[in-house]
Amino acid sequence: MIMEYKNIVLPNYEHSILNTITSILKYYHVETNHKSSEKIDQLLYKREYKNVILLILDGLGEHILNKISSEGYLNQNKIDCVTSVYPSTTTAALTTYYSGRPPYETGWIAWSQYFKEYGRAIDMFSHNESYMREPLKKPLMDVFKTIVNYETVFDKIEKASSDVKAYEIEPEYAERRAKRAIKANNIDELIMNINDLCLMPSKKFIFAYSDNPDGLLHDFGTTSEEVETFVKETEKKIEKMVKDFDEDTILIISADHGHKDIEKAYKLLDYPEIQECLIMPASLESRILAFWVKEDMKEIFVQRFNKAFGKEFWLMTKETFLDKYHFLGYGNKHKKIDDFIGNYIALSVGGSSIQLGTFLTEGKPIKKSTHCGLTKEEMEVPVIVITK
Fold first, then answer.
1. Residue-wise pLDDT tens digits, 135-154
2. What angle do CA 91, 95, 98 make, to 5 degrees?
3. Beta strands 249-254 and 380-387, pairing class
C-alpha cells in the first residue's frame, strides 16, 4: 500500500530528532541505548562548552524555513535535515526531547489519548478531558505521575554530570519539567533569558522552547505574512544574540515537526457506517486516528474506511504500525501503547484532516495548518548549529 502514496516520509530513528537530544545526553555522560547524531557529536566534542543551548522553534519545519528564508542566517548554519519522530506532533516530539526516548518507550503519542483508568480521553499536555475540555475533578489516581511519567533529560544530565546545571525556558502556561525553570512568553523574553544564563559562571544545559511559529501556523497557514514575519524577525534576533556569545557556548536549533496546510476537513460523526464498526470513539488527532473496531466488523470497517478516505489516509493494523514499520520507534515498549492505539490506525498522507468528536459537544475547531501526518512538510526538520 505504501507505494501508492507519494510525497510521504517515514520516521527514521537513526536520523531523527531523537538523535539530536541523544548527542546532548552523551556529551553529558548520560547512558542511553539510542544512536546519537554524528554531525552534532563532531561539533560538541571540539571543545568543552560552558553553555550548551538547545532551542526548539515549534513547527519550524525544513520546508517552511526554506520557503521563507532559503539563504538566511539559519540555513547558512544548517548542518542537517532529519525526520521528526512519529506522530509528527508536539506531544510525541517534545516528549522525545524532554525524555531522550521515542514515543514507543514514553507512551506519549498524540494530543488526546484514551485512559481506561478514567474512562476518558485526556489531552496529554493540558490534562483536560478531551471532548468537554474540562479538568478532571479530583481523580483518585494521577496517571501523569504514575503511568506516563518519565525521567527527564534535565534530571539525567544533572545526575551524570554533577557540575552541570540544567535549565528550561518555556511559556508561562507550560508544565515545568526541570528544577530550574524560567518563564518566557515570547521570543524576546526567551532570548533575554538565554543571554542572562550564559553570563552566569557555571556549566549549563539550556533547553529553550518557543511555541511559535506553530501557533501562527495553526491560525494563519504556512504561506501567511504572519508566519513569514515571525521567522524572519526571529532569525535576525538569533543572529544578534549569537554575536554576544563566547567561544564556550554552542547553540543547537531545531524543531519538533513541520506543518501542512489543510485542504479538506471531515467529521467522523458524519460517517455512521464507520461509527457502526467502532466499540468506542476514535482518538489521538485529526491526522492520526486510533480505532477500536468490533471483532466481527474488522473487514467491513477496512472496506468502508478505505472507500471514504483511502486516498487521503493510510489505514493499517496495530501490528503493522508497531512491528512492521516501527512508527513509534524502538526500545522497551511502554505498557500503555496497546491501550492507546486500539487495533487500527489511520495516518494522513495528504492535506486532509478528520475531526474527532462525540455528540456531547462540538468538536475542536479546524486549523488552517497542522501536523501529525506523513508528508515531508510535516516530517522533515532542520538541524542548525552555531558556534564561534
1. 998 899 999 999 999 999 99
2. 150
3. antiparallel
Is residue 175 exposed (0-12), middle (13-18) or buried (19+ Cβ within 10 Å)? exposed
Q: Report the predicted TM-score, pTM, of the whole model to 2 decimal places.
A: 0.96
Q: How far apart are CA 49 and CA 134, in angstroms?
A: 45
- Give the pLDDT confidence of 21-58 residue by residue, as tens digits: 999 999 999 999 999 999 999 999 999 999 999 999 99
The alpha carbon dihedral of 222, 257, 292, 150 has a sign of negative
E strand or H helix at 238, and its extent?
A: helix 225-243
Whether the link from the prior residue into 103 is cis, omega within 30° of 0, is no
What is the number of other CB atoms lying within 10 angstroms of the CB of residue 339? 17
How far, in Å, CA of 142 to CA of 268, rounded? Answer: 30
Query: Exposure string (b/e) for 56-86, b if CB count within 10 Å is 16 or more?
Result: bbbbbbbbbbbebbeebbbbebbebbbbbbb
Q: Residue 36 has what DSSP assignment?
A: P
